[in-house]
């Protein structure tokens, strides 16, 4: 009965949207069995065996849902294996599974061919779907844009072309029409003809959310994450846990919150200390959170090679004795990347092995770990395997509007959820944060855009050094550190030059993100030429008015 009903439903859908039968049969149900009670899901005929939560006793319920398709006009959804992005509406498609991070056949969001959910969720479903008569719906209404259809048809994700309109080069070409390459109005998202992030080198946190992210926010689930009921958030956490090779994950609002929640979860009984690099974000830019939240002492040490800590330096300063005069080192917190420089996986492994021998917990501030992975320093799983906890940021190079995530084993995440709540980090409708974060990981990290940022950073480095400029640090990833002091260049004057030529800079640190294009780099060339030679580069400059008092503060901060 069940199989016949599913066969009938599949045949009917094929006549409506002209989808090949093999494509429908590739779909898998995954783990979101709770959503059987909201929507009909067409999938493999063996979906009952694939699902880890639905048992034999649920046969009659699923059969009733499938066979009652004519009794109500709610949405019918096709979901991917272990993937759920929310309550998808007509005209949008859900995407294939992410096993091994390989692109797969795109899934299909079908037409208004649906089933009646149980009464307890009927009102929610009706609020989140559009009720239309299927025979009056034009077929074109369910045809997605080209960039969406081709999202997973190549390793580089064809949908990346959608973001051309948000780079310096693309924003100019679309300024007159006011539309992006996918046909949606850019004014809705940013209210400007060009993306301001396309000329902003202050930090990779200054990216602009893309149209894909905005649509994901519109289409996400809006259930409670404090009670762990929101599918969009739970799906993201499971996805990142799998991607990093850890047991579990927890969404947080920022990298600072991620680091502080992780350390507070590890540190339960003073006295205790956290050993870290003296230049790190944890000790310099998190408002003293380790002392105020965890009652822990910081043990900052200097990297003699000026790039990253070594095992020998850690061994020299870590306190592992029982001397009551000293504060014992309980956590070693590393940062990768730090100032754009990669800490080699080999050195991470040396420190991790020694720490485990001595009962010391390993934490990683991996806000920009994505960059190290994109540069070929090692896989995400390889790096994460050496740490007990890792904080990963969505809102820096990946370009999401907000959010970070911490990963670790299940007991750690269980305690971290408690700590997150205690400092006001519990989120109700967390889907609006999780949905764009998922898009950022898939389209920026898995889509290969970070490597493009690294190429642009190398180009900026070459422009500076070809003009005789010196660097503070080597360029490993997306950061270029200019040694302005070596050339007696005043910080405020340099920032003013950036304003003059239409780029935003923060002293000698240039951070490149994927929304920066060729035109922005050409403007940087003019800034460098003017700064080093005192001669204006050819071409029209862009003058930006500024408050001199505010200008004094523009070089501060290293987010």
From TrEMBL:
SUPFAM superfamilies: PLP-dependent transferases. Its cofactor is pyridoxal 5'-phosphate. One of its GO terms (cellular component) is cytosol. GO terms for molecular function: L-allo-threonine aldolase activity; transferase activity. Residues 200-483 form the Aromatic amino acid beta-eliminating lyase/threonine aldolase domain. Keywords: Lyase, Pyridoxal phosphate, Transferase. It holds the Pfam family Beta_elim_lyase. GO terms for biological process: glycine biosynthetic process; L-threonine catabolic process. The keyword Lyase applies. Belongs to the threonine aldolase family. This is Pyridoxal phosphate-dependent transferase.
